[in-house]
Amino acid sequence: MSTSDAAFIPLSIAVLTISDTRTIDTDRSGRLLIDQLEQDGHRLERREIIPDDPYRIRARVADWIADPAVQVILTTGGTGYTGRDSTPEAVRVLFDHPVEGFGELFRQLSFDDVGSSTVQSRALAGMANNTMIFCLPGSTGACRTGWTRILHEQLDSRHQPCNFANLIIPGRTQHG
What Pfam family is a match for this entry (predicted)? Predict the structure, then answer.
């Protein structure tokens, strides 16, 4: 895995925190994702916190999928099995193409941090209307793992042999 000498192309990213209790001041996971994406040179296009309600989640993600200014959507929260966790059910139906390997890789990497508890993560990803959607758990550690171990490279248009950035940047193609 390498990075080419080509110029970095920043992406416009929306961050959606799904929680019945968090606010802008207490949303550490959303803040971590924003800090990481900005540190990597991407742009925060939208940010919102909404309750864990499948219809509100689906409506917001669908709105952002239809917005040409949003290239990537990161959600945090609602991917477990407790309470009102409903992100997978709300978002999966919107995918044109699911990215099965994202959840599989996320759980594999998370095993180092949380052991067998990783089987309770329903992290998932997909593509819809030329927009990448990544649904991460609500914990700060899980968001850190998702960003630093997967998204940091996959949203970098220079990452070789392939990356998601080149699938969504107009006029770009995969090399390799």
Answer: MoCF_biosynth
**Distance in angstroms (rounded) separating the CA atoms of residues 13 and 36:** 11
86 to 53, 58, 68, 92, 154: CA distances (angstroms): 7, 10, 26, 10, 25
Q: Is 130 left (phi over 0), alpha (psi -120 to 50) or beta?
A: left
pTM for this model (two decimals): 0.95
Domains of the chain plus CATH, in order, are 9-168 (3.40.980.10)
74: part of which helix (H) or strand (E)?
A: strand 72-76
Q: Give 118-152 pLDDT, tens digit per residue.
A: 998 999 999 999 999 999 999 999 999 999 999 99
